[in-house]
Amino acid sequence: MTSRYAGQTIDGLLNDPMTQAVMQADHLDPATVRAMLHSMAQRLRTLPHATAPARPAALRTSGIFSRRTACWP
Fold first, then answer.
1. In a domain, 42, yes or no
2. How far apart are CA 32 and CA 46, in angstroms?
3. Domain that holds residue 22
4. pLDDT tens per residue, range 7-53
């Protein structure tokens, strides 16, 4: 499975002007958000792929999500 966001980095995302505007509007400290995202990325890298959550059954058969499989197995 490939993603159109595969090359996007946390730093690239946080340096985006739109992201910065949203964080400012929500009164979020960019350094805190950056640290949290890097911490989460590190934790996710250590998990075996088998522990990723399966696509919820409710989303497999309902509405537009039944046709969207790019994000869920």
1. yes
2. 22
3. 10-67
4. 778 888 899 999 999 999 999 999 999 999 989 888 888 877 655 56
